[in-house]
Amino acid sequence: MGQRISHLLAASWGAALYAQAPLTLAEAVRISLEKHPSIAATRSGISAAEARLRQAKSGWLPKVNYQESWQRSNNPVFVFSSRLMQRRFTEQNFAINDLNHPDSINNFQSMVSVDQTLFDAGQTGNAKRAAELGRQMATEDRRRVEQDLIGRVARIYHAVLLTGELVRVAEEAVKSAEADLARAEARLSAGITTESDVLSIRVHLTAMREQRIRRQADLGVARAALNEAMGAGLDEQHTLVTPVSEAAGGPDQADREKQAAAERPEVRQARLAVSLAETQVAAARVNYWPQVGLRGGLEADRARFVTEGSGSWFAGVSLRWNLFNGGSDKAKAEEASHALARARAMEQQAASGIRLEVRRANADLTSARERLTVTAAAVSAAEESLRIVKNRYENGLNTVTDLLRAETALDEARTRHVAAVHDVRLAAVGVEIAMGTLNENSDVLK
């Protein structure tokens, strides 16, 4: 019966594993770029910027309006002008009594007007340039969000792998402690050791089991975090197949700082912000210049909605020049100049900060690689030390304290080594983020 239950449990576990779709890091990144809400938000931002650009371009196009109105009154001026516009004015309407006390009349007015800018001193051009710069800034913002998301997915993906490796290390520690306990109990039965040795190993075994439980819980949380980063359901199950290898990916480059200055979205946005501020300075100075426009239209005035009336047309050119408005234009120009100075200072700050980030990322990668070598040697030394201590313990040459110390040292060495492998991968991702070159096809994701 027990064997049958074991077969059923094994079959169900195998089915569960089969149901988990293999998931590479590159595939996880692709899914996140398709489904995560932050990417959808940046798409909307770009669409809004493109709409503002179309709006700005419309400044040179004619504006056509249609207006329909109805009025009724016995006001002498209204009656006189309405009859004149309707072309229904007769000689009898000049009678004094009719002029002073006219009967109320209707005036249905239909009007189509066209306004065309002839000269605006570059106002439309500046608006168009500002909108184009805004679209470019929205595009760079999307690049920044994408790189942040890719980096986040990579960190969480490797965190899942790291936690899984830590679970494996904990399981090995539990198995080793169980073997030590069996060995100590056999020695106790043979009268070679004491009850205190057996109790010490049992305490150590309990600690290793507790550590395994904590790491298994951390693994579940890490998997849910990966699903959230991909925009998937928190309970979806995947089998991660990109290995936690020692390969860092990405070639070393002596000019990483220079590349970061050219590729980082933040630097590009700061540069665009300077150009936008320059455009706003030019736009503020436009207010000193006149604006010339053309206006034309067709008008129909009728006593009834469709009859008893006549149409007319009009056309004209207008010039508007603001000669004095209390210093408002000057204040706007000064404000724009100060904003430009601020944008230039922010550009310098961004460039300096990004150079520092590149150096920090390079240092992290170098440190992680060196730690990888050191921890690998430490694992080999700890394994050999434990082997020697076990042999000496079985021969009564070492105490149980020596054995447990060697077991703990091996567990810690393995944990540090796994963490170092994880840090190398993440440091390589961090270098590409600092350089502004991280994308879904980057080698560090393979």
List the helices and strands and how they pair.
Blueprint: H1 2-19, E1 21-23, H2 25-35, H3 37-57, E2 63-73, H4 76-85, H5 96-100, E3 105-119, H6 123-189, H7 195-229, E4 238-240, H8 256-263, H9 265-286, E5 291-302, E6 309-320, H10 328-394, H11 400-435
Parallel strand pairs: 1-4
Antiparallel strand pairs: 2-3, 3-5, 5-6
Helix pairs in contact: 2-6, 3-6, 6-7, 6-9, 6-11, 8-10, 9-10, 10-11
Please provide a written account of the structure.
The chain is α+β, with helices and mostly antiparallel strands. It folds into 2 domains: 19-61 and 120-287 and 335-445, Outer membrane efflux proteins (OEP) (Up-down Bundle), CATH 1.20.1600.10; 64-119 and 291-321, no CATH class. Helices cover 67% and strands 13% of the residues. It contains 11 helices and 6 strands. It has helices at residues 2-19, 25-35, 37-57, 76-85, 96-100, 123-189, 195-229, 256-263, 265-286, 328-394, 400-435, and strands spanning 21-23, 63-73, 105-119, 238-240, 291-302, 309-320. It has a 4-stranded antiparallel sheet. A two-stranded parallel sheet has the order 1-4. β5 and β6 (309-320) form a beta hairpin. α3 runs antiparallel to α6 and α10 (328-394) packs antiparallel against α11. The chain is elongated and about 140 Å long.
